[in-house]
């Protein structure tokens, strides 16, 4: 599975945002570069049907607040993930409903998994309901951090700037989330990588 | 474990149709905000602010549900008073305020179905020598449609660049500087104030408030008017540091001055935003000030009626004493 479409900030993103203060049409460069990735993240968390409003609001918010964007604090990509995550919080019930559906049916069957991952997916299949339930049981702020790592592949530092929280808080929320997930799944499960668990 | 989470969520299908819809929304928003001469001037100002080391805001914490506390607003004003107190008095040959102003033209223009509001932008300056001689400087940036709907109506009207019978034009003008006869550049609630009078104002908050209430009382003072007169002492008048400090302290005690939290002005400079409502001849208006708490300087003042439209936006470029000599203002950097 491809997890990241953009490994790092595009060169010159910050300049584009600055330039868009003068010519607001230039903001479309940012939109073109990040729409796919942000849509993917929001659709994963809220489901494809409910993603539209939040994705639109993410880019409109970014556009309106572009005067407040500080390139020394975060890349444009991280800034957009922060805005999207804050907006997703207002759709708590939709997120829980989506998680219940994912636990029952799995992700959208239209999209085939990559060939080499099929066997892993089959063995993970039985864990799906418990993982979904465990994620739904997490505190919202712990889930945000866990998913920014797992789905968006942001570093601790990037998550700290995206959410405006201290660096250390990222680590503590992440390890609490992983601890709860492990507890639900059972320590003995061979699918769980103990080294990864200790990484947070 | 993260791999299990990723598998659970799967890979949603890309949605090009959604991208087109959201892109259109974004374009509409960008057009709505198109105000060319003003935005170029503001961009120039933003660049100047970066050069001057003004800190631009970081990634804003999104907390629209948390209302900033009354107590935090009060302590911000009291802290600004301490900074204001340590300012230097009369540190230069001239006192000067230089600002970027955008005002809605008071009459709707156009005809028939194509009626619209225009907004005029200009650089405005006031200068005063130590002896109290006063000059007013101005440079027009040209008028633009006030909003997106106005812009569309203006285009349908044939995109006129001037209007018979109105002193209004879409083109920028040369800067001018004129001496103000009588040396009265300042006013409080419509009453003229000399430099000598401003210097003699009370330097304790209770005394200053009483004095200001007395000055504005003949106009049927409401508390918003007192707040407005006090805040005027912070930036639009050559108030001595102890008068500015007293004005901050008096504002901190006014219940109708509401703290809105940290806000950016149109040029992106961030400060503490305070708002109050006052009765003007045209009706109730709301005025919002953004204050740089680090320097105790007012960054911007926005006046609007019932919150629907910015009727007047003022961005303070410079305020205080200088050894520069009064000259006609140039257009700010970034303006063609």
Automatic annotation (TrEMBL), chain A:
Residues 131-181 form the RNA polymerase sigma factor 70 region 4 type domain. Residues 31-95 form the RNA polymerase sigma-70 region domain. The keyword Acyltransferase does not apply. GO terms for cellular component: DNA-directed RNA polymerase complex. Pfam families: Sigma70_r2, Sigma70_r4_2. The keyword Magnesium does not apply. GO terms for biological process: DNA-templated transcription initiation. InterPro entries: RNA_pol_sigma-70-like (IPR039425), RNA_pol_sigma-70_dom (IPR014284), RNA_pol_sigma70_r2 (IPR007627), RNA_pol_sigma70_r4_t2 (IPR013249), RNA_pol_sigma_r2 (IPR013325), RNA_pol_sigma_r3/r4-like (IPR013324), WH-like_DNA-bd_sf (IPR036388). Keywords: DNA-binding, DNA-directed RNA polymerase, Sigma factor, Transcription, Transcription regulation. GO terms for molecular function: DNA binding; sigma factor activity. Belongs to the sigma-70 factor family. ECF subfamily. NCBIfam families: sigma70-ECF (TIGR02937). This is DNA-directed RNA polymerase sigma-70 factor. It comes from Acrocarpospora phusangensis.
From TrEMBL, chain B:
The chain crosses the membrane at residues 41-61. It comes from the Bacteria. Residues 148-159 have a biased composition (Basic and acidic residues). InterPro entries: CU044_5270-like. Keywords: Membrane, Transmembrane, Transmembrane helix. Residues 146-174 are annotated as: Disordered. This is Uncharacterized protein. It comes from Acrocarpospora phusangensis.
């Amino acid at each position: 599975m491809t997890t990241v479409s953009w490994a790092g900030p595009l060169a010159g993103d910050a300049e584009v945002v600055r330039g868009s203060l003068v010519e607001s049409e230039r903001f479309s460069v940012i939109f073109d570069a990040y729409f796919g990735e942000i849509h993917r993240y929001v659709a994963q968390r809220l489901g494809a049907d409910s993603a539209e409003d939040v994705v639109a609001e993410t880019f409109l918010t970014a556009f309106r607040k572009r005067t407040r964007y500080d390139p020394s604090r975060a890349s444009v990509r991280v800034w957009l993930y922060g805005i999207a995550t804050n907006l997703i919080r207002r759709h708590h019930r939709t997120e829980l409903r989506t998680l219940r559906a994912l636990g029952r049916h799995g992700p959208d069957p239209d999209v085939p998994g990559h060939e080499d991952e099929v066997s892993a997916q089959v063995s993970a299949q039985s864990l799906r309901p418990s993982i979904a339930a465990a994620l739904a049981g997490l505190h919202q702020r712990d889930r945000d951090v866990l998913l920014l790592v797992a789905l968006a592949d942001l570093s601790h530092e990037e998550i700290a700037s995206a959410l405006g929280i201290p660096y250390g808080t990222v680590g503590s929320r992440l390890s609490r989330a992983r601890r709860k997930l492990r507890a639900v799944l059972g320590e003995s499960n061979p699918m769980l990588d103990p080294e990864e668990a200790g990484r947070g | 474990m993260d791999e299990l989470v990723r598998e659970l969520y799967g890979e949603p299908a890309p949605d090009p149709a959604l991208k087109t819809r959201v892109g259109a929304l974004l374009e509409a928003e960008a057009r709505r905000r198109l105000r060319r001469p003003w935005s170029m001037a503001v961009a120039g100002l933003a660049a100047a602010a970066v050069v001057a080391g003004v800190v631009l805001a970081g990634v804003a914490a999104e907390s629209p549900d948390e209302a900033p506390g009354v107590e935090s607003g009060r302590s911000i004003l009291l802290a600004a008073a301490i900074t204001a107190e340590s300012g230097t008095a009369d540190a230069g040959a001239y006192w000067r305020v230089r600002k970027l102003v955008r005002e809605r033209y008071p009459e709707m223009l156009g005809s028939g179905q194509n009626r619209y509001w225009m907004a005029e932008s200009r650089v405005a300056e006031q200068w005063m020598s130590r002896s109290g001689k006063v000059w007013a400087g101005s440079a027009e940036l040209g008028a633009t449609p006030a909003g997106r709907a106005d812009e569309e109506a203006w285009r349908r009207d044939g995109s006129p660049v001037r209007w018979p019978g109105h002193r209004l034009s879409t083109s920028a003008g040369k800067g001018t500087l004129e001496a103000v006869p009588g040396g009265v550049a300042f006013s409080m609630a419509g009453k003229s104030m000399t430099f000598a009078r401003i210097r003699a104002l009370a330097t304790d908050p209770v005394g200053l408030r009483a004095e200001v209430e007395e000055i504005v009382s003949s106009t049927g003072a409401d508390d918003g008017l007192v707040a407005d007169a006090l805040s005027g002492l912070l930036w639009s008048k050559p108030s001595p540091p102890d008068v500015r400090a007293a004005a901050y302290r008096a504002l901190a005690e006014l219940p109708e001055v509401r703290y809105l939290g940290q806000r950016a002005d149109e040029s992106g400079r961030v400060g503490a935003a305070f708002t109050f409502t006052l009765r003007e001849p045209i009706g109730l208006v709301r005025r919002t000030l953004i204050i740089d708490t680090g320097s105790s300087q007012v960054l911007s003042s926005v006046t609007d009626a019932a919150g629907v439209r910015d009727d007047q936006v003022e961005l303070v470029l410079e305020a205080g004493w200088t050894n520069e000599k009064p000259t006609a203002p140039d257009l700010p950097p970034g303006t063609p």
